[in-house]
């Protein structure tokens, strides 16, 4: 932690950046923090409660960060994949941000929790996560725990769903998605949902019915899944913020699996790896073309 | 308020037989916004078109819907009529009630209901159509021709004779292509070199043709009328301005045992060489992979041999020359990169292509291919035109030709017919007969495909007058026994196995596209088939255009072609190019993509999926010049209106003019689903 604070202080006092974006202690656990003065660096923390993906703040659509000019942002390995996505999709120039990687051995499911990190409290998505530090980062600080072995419960659930007959699977999703209240929190928090105007908000024509009812809900979630195919970095934020507890990770992970199996692409923190959308390879499977 | 006119066509009986056209007109007349609805026997006839024009004026129409055939047939006709009536032509659309309805249904009542539905969807679309105007872009009136075989030569000469400048790029040291290797040519048996070399010289001397030999296209940017082409001029190691082509250098080169590409390995050349005496340009080239000096340099050793430089009185040899790049602006591109022959060896360039284990994978020395036979039969060839077999130089008295080697054989990876082999094998048997009077030529064939002017007569002459023995069937196995080649096959007409001895075997191997065609095609954004042959835009109606506007294709790079075909295609591309160059400005359909600048997120998925490279980056700046956002911009000159970006854009920020989401959506809504 001192290492992180020292680095933040130096970056701010030397004027390398105008702000450092990290986590601080809040009234209800860890929360995102903007530090703009060298002294403020002492507010910064990093521990397993720091689950939020701060890459979301880098999207050019977030006006508060834009005003600050050059910033540093603290990243877990999964967050770094999101930053790589933003660079890959021309949202931020790499030279406009300083990336501070923190070594990570997994985070808690809940940022408000006070329980120690353990086999029972760890976020499910961290099970089997192979990355301990962000390769993309300019600076890497801290020490990491050993991580937790996979498979995640989610992976088991995906297998279970895949084994179901189609109509039962459909029933499962009907039931889950009927809970959706269309608050669009999943979209707002997603680092890669950075569109200036989401097609779900478009009215001429209205592609997706906006009221929370079965037809629009299914259309919304299919669209969201397709738009994140090959792009979702598994930061887990959408599922965490959903007020209805819809298991959104089951959708994004299933699609990620398909993209990985068919197009041999896994989101990495290397922005130079081309995204599967728009990448054509001679040996791409194309049996669906008649 | 929309005031739409609906015009239902009977197309004689074509539509009227199955669809009640009067009923369609009546029901469509009740659709809100439709103020005029009529039917007529032939809408495309002059009186029919007059009806459209008159109604626009009399009823003050704001849109026209013609329910008739496919827009492919008559959209132009009715848009012109609409313009004649004083309305923007893009306010006219066709509802296809023929191909999509009357031709495919039998139940008159149901077909009539469907015709009404189809027409209604288009009415809803036309209500949302907006006037569009043709796009005009400037044209650079110079052409690039890639490949200097007969096809490229012909295209270059025709375009240059038509008054436009041509850049001709040839990857080899000389132009001429495969035709320069041929002995005599079917169906007239005239000497190939004699008819080709005058054209090669003409290319060289033409004031409007700039030849870059030993050069390749490095990159292509831009679009029809406005291409920027970067050309790599490979280091020849010769100063072209100083060399006078005396040939003193080639005589002194000590490395004389290099298999000559021009003679298909049957003759030898030196490391500094001119591929053949009539080469154009007549300049030597150092093959750096084989030159002693460069081989030493590669090993980090000092330069030893400089014999050629010592022999050159013009000091034209330049061992330190490096590849140079030139950029040329052109408005049109002709691809004429030709073919290569399939070889039957074990190792193949592509995994789906297989060699011939049953013929020993090409290891029997007296089994040669057709081009090698051409070199043996050629007066300028390694044997001065005597037919001698490679192993011991003896004259073969029993020669066997095998057709369809690789061709028409899905198992070898090439299911197409190479088209020219039936003809050149017939030619080969004649050339053989003329040179070896007491010899016997035998041909194994699958079918004889001799469709062409004078072709069937030619192949019959080989059989009936020139003593060739034709056996319908395939050879299943071939091996060497002493100095004879044992052949085992099956005569399918006699229905029995056949065995024979041969002194030499000539394989009519399949024609394949040139290596590297895929990367060239990708640079040009043109598509190619699974074999690598360049795709034409339409197999019947647009045979020499590609799917990229301004890029044309001629000769054997498009499919197996003989010389008459290749030349005809080349002249066709020249007429297309000259047609394009006839005007200073080019008119394009305005159905191109446009980006909604307010909502574009700048993710550039559209750029990644655009097969034509039409999407550019555009910076949105504030008054002080600070970049606020980078968003997509579609260059209307390049966009082909394919709509891929529209389907891909996650925020639905790019749309085709004339096919907007709103327009398509309203069509779907009109169906009430
Ligand atoms: C054994 C045999 C006998 C034949 N006999 C006859 C006959 O008697 N009569 C007849 O009509 N036809 C005959 N043909 C067919 C004839 O050879 C072809 O029709 C003709 O050569 C096709 O011309 P082309 O210009 O399309 O291709 P090519 O002759 O192959 O020329 C292509 C040129 O493009 C160049 N090139 C390739 N790639 C590139 C690149 N990337 N950049 C720049 N340049 C490039 C090549 O170096 C070459 O010079 C015969 C063919 C064979 C195999
Ligand atoms: S956060 Fe949950 S409830 Fe809100 S839109 Fe997303 S899935 Fe629906
Ligand atoms: S979809 Fe969910 S898990 Fe994936 S990147 Fe967006 S917020 Fe993170
Ligand atoms: S895909 Fe859509 S949002 Fe992305 S750059 Fe293109 S037009 Fe803009
Ligand atoms: S419609 Fe879109 S994808 Fe198609 S050529 Fe135009 S810009 Fe490219």
CATH class of the largest domain in chain B: Alpha Beta
Helix/strand class of chain B: alpha/beta
**Chain pair sharing the greatest interface:** A-B, 21 and 24 residues
Count of spatially separate domains of chain A? 2
Share of residues in strands of chain A: 5-15%
Quaternary: heterodimer
Number of helices of chain B: 17
Percent of residues in β-strands of chain B = 15-25%
Bound molecules: flavin-adenine dinucleotide, iron/sulfur cluster
What would CATH call the homologous superfamily of the largest domain in chain B?
FAD/NAD(P)-binding domain
Strand order of the largest sheet of chain B: 20-26-21-22-23-24-25
Which parts of chain B are unreliable, with pLDDT below 50 for 5 consecutive residues or more? none
Offer a few descriptive terms.
heterodimer; A: 290 residues; alpha/beta; 2 domains; 6-stranded mixed β-sheet; 6 strands; 32% helix; 11% strand; B: 673 residues; Rossmann fold; FAD/NAD(P)-binding domain; 5-stranded parallel β-sheet; 27% helix; binds flavin-adenine dinucleotide; binds iron/sulfur cluster
